[in-house]
Design a protein that fits this description.
This protein has 159 residues and is of the alpha+beta class. The protein contains 4 helices and 7 strands. The chain has one domain: Gcn5-related N-acetyltransferase (GNAT) (Aminopeptidase, 3-Layer(aba) Sandwich).
């Protein structure tokens, strides 16, 4: 298994991965709505990685994006911050350390980008395992920092 930076020719394979992975956790891949940015990763993300197995198939994803400062969330949101997004891993690979490897890599990358804080949001209904991994890395639950209507859990990590 290895993490590689996303390149445009992986887009079709990524779409297939998301169609398979999201339903494993009770989600539906919505490429024309909620997940539209994921059908053009090269055009929408600067920092997006895929976990590839030995057969060069995508088994996981993670991204880090710039997090704009919003004054209405100034009590919990810091300037010069990034946000973890799209942490997905096929269920058959859960419990083998790959989620930790992806998150650890994303944290290291965020530090190298010069961020001082790293945030994430999720819906706890779908993400109990991921939340546990985030807490192991030191992420702490905080009040809402954005307007994502699908998220009910918000976390941050001081880098």
């Amino acid at each position: 298994m290895r993490l590689v930076g996303f390149v445009h020719f992986l887009q079709s394979q990524l779409n297939d991965f998301l169609e398979k992975c999201m339903p494993e956790s009770g989600r539906t891949f919505d490429p024309k709505g909620k997940h539209a940015s994921l059908v053009d990763v090269a055009g929408n993300y600067r920092h997006f990685w895929v976990m590839m197995d030995d057969e060069q198939e995508i088994v996981g994803t993670i991204a880090v994006v710039d997090l704009p400062f919003e004054q209405k969330y100034a009590e919990v949101l810091h300037r010069n911050s990034g946000e973890v997004r799209n942490l997905y891993l096929l269920k058959e690979y859960h419990g083998q350390g790959y989620g930790k490897k992806m998150l650890g890599f994303a944290i290291d990358q965020a530090k190298s980008f010069g961020y001082t804080w790293l945030y994430l949001d999720t819906n706890s209904q779908y993400s109990q395992t991921a939340l546990s991994i985030c807490e192991q890395f030191g992420f702490q639950r905080i009040p809402r920092y954005n307007d994502n209507p699908d998220a009910d859990t918000f976390m941050r990590l001081k880098l």
